[in-house]
Amino acid sequence: MANVSNRTKGIICILLSALSFSGMSSFINLSGDLPVAQKVFFRNLVALFIASITLLKNKESFKPHKGCLKYHLIRSSAGLLGVFGNFYATTKMASTADAAILNKMSPFFTLIFSAIFLKEKVKPKQAVAIGIAFVGAMFIIKPTMSNVELFPSVCGFIGGVCAGGAYTAVRHMGNKGENGRFTVFFFSLFSCLITAPYLIFNFHYMTPLQWFYLIMVGVCAAGGQFAITAAYTFAPSREISVYDYSNVIFTAISGYFFLGGQIPDLWSFVGYFIICAMAVWMFIYNNREYNLKKSM
User: Fold this and answer.
1) Is the pTM of this model over 0.70?
2) I need a surface site. Which of 38, 58, 80, 89 has the fewest CB within 10 A?
3) Who wins on pLDDT, 257 or 77?
């Protein structure tokens, strides 16, 4: 890939990340009726193992960058809540694609949290995109008492909000020079330590096939994390972030073929269209703004 541009490498990595996270969603469902905490533990245990091997192989420090510890704790707390929300929605909702698109609200909330905590300015068009994307999420959540999936839908949405907060902390640490591989390691270790007590006192028996599925959840999650970290190393967010929404397409396809013919309803498709359209609009707008500044 010597002659391939960094932008193309970034796109390839972010597509691989989207495919990996899609596989994670499928394996979460295939693992059956196990407690969410048990699924979350194994998701992070495998990632912890892979991250530790990577740090050792590269002879990198297992200590946080100066001034980053509190942000690691914020990132890990918000990230773990985000994973719980996403896993619960993925397990309980009839369509894994619905859970995936609710999680993809995170970039919009990253904008909001970056404005609040990092003092990064949100421009009027960005604010409009956030508002319209929120409306799109409501088409998927369907906030009426007759919706039997209201609670898992709200959990999935809150998971997207928390993920947005976690990515804001990651962004801040990246600006401080923190190692992305250590960030994955710290989050995985934090998550395992928080969820381990539940397993000690309330472990649910698993068949060999369920063991395999949960290990694959961890493998896919780790692959997705490292691929998306590599993607943003090769190219800035404004150039490649929109390709991350391919995860919804991959998840919908796998839901149909591997999870009993899942097909989202019409209102969900309307929500997908609105959220993805706003993501594309933001992608075009950010690139246009960057090119304008560059030409001045």
Assistant:
1) yes
2) 58
3) 77
